[in-house]
Structures are given as structure tokens and as C-alpha cells.
């Protein structure tokens, strides 16, 4: 499985005594289905000169195109069988610990209105335990 999305909403930290990475994925994204179906996800960081590819990955949906091919990325697989990219300068492999959609009733009114106005599916929060990190 190699489905890719550009994200800027995310954070790194610690929970339940484990190092964690949190990503936020809207239900409008094709990627959301794969986040639900898989036990692992990977987060990769790319060099600054790959901005064009990242913008493509964040504009086009995997429902319509093979984005990995479109961005010219080279897929490599970890020992656990999860995809990372040869072009990345940082790769983080995460084991999904927790996933839940934000409750519209618990978020600020301004944010609730933003979802209503844009029609964007409310984001899920996925907390992953960081199991491996590769850095160039
Ligand atoms: C700079 C940038 C940051 C983005 N950050 C997020 C994010 O944190 N979460 C999210 O759900 N979508 C985010 N997006 C939007 C998705 O990348 C975009 O909708 C993408 O086309 C979804 O692809 P998919 O349908 O193949 O999953 C971002 C887009 C850009 C350009």
C-alpha cells in the first residue's frame, strides 16, 4: 500500500510512556480510508527543493491519479513492510495507537463554522507510536 498525502497539521510528543507522532486527516481525503484500514503509517519529510512535488501531493487526490508516480517518488519498504520514500531526508514509522474523529460539539464555534462553510469532512486524529526513524 502506498498512498500519500501532504500534511502540515501534526505534532510529535509522548503519551502512555511512548514517543508519538500525531497526524490529522480529514474524512474528505482518500488517505483517510487507508489510515482506518492499516495498523501503521509513515511520515516523511522532504528537502526544500521538493516543494513542487509536495504541492502536487497536496492538491491532487489518489482517487484520481497514481500520485506516487506523478510526483516521481521512489518507494522503499521498511522491514515491517511500510512504504517510505528514497527522496525523503527524514522518515518516521508509526504504529497506530489511537484514532478518533473530532466531535463538532466540543470544538470552538469558529472551527465548527469553518467545517460547515468549507464542507470539509471533520478531521480524525491519529496517534502513532514512533517505532523507527531514519534520517539522512
Ligand atoms: C501544504 C499542505 C498541507 C496540508 N495538510 C493537510 C493536513 O494536515 N491534513 C489533511 O487532511 N489534509 C491536508 N492537506 C490537503 C491534502 O494534502 C489534499 O487534500 C490531498 O489532495 C489529499 O489527497 P488524497 O485524497 O489522495 O488523500 C494539505 C495540503 C497542503 C498543500
Model description:
- The protein is α+β, with helices and mostly antiparallel strands and 136 residues long.
- It has a single domain, classed as Pnp Oxidase, Chain A (Roll), CATH 2.30.110.
- 21% of the residues lie in helices and 38% in strands.
- The strands form 2 sheets. It has a 5-stranded antiparallel β-sheet with strand order 1-2-7-6-3. A two-stranded antiparallel sheet has the order 4-5.
- The two termini are 24 Å apart.
- The structure holds flavin mononucleotide.
Summarize the structure.
With 136 residues, the protein is of the alpha+beta class. Helices cover 21% and strands 38% of the residues.
- Per the principal axes of the C-alpha atoms, what is the gross shape? globular
Identify the CATH class.
Mainly Beta
Query: Number of helical runs?
Result: 4
**Span of the ends, CA to CA:** 24 Å
Largest sheet: 5 strands, antiparallel
CATH topology: Pnp Oxidase, Chain A
What series of H and E elements makes up the topology? EEHEHHEEEHE
Write down the overall mean pLDDT: 96
Strand content: 35-45%
Give the strand order, joined by hyphens, for the main sheet: 1-2-7-6-3
Question: What radius of gyration results from the CA coordinates?
Answer: 15 Å
CATH architecture: Roll
CATH homolog superfamily = Electron Transport, Fmn-binding Protein, Chain A
Residue runs with pLDDT of under 50 for 5 or more positions: none
Structural domain count: 1
Category by helix and strand content: alpha+beta
**Residue share in helices?**
10-25%
Bound molecules: flavin mononucleotide
Find the count of extended strands (DSSP E, 2+ residues).
7
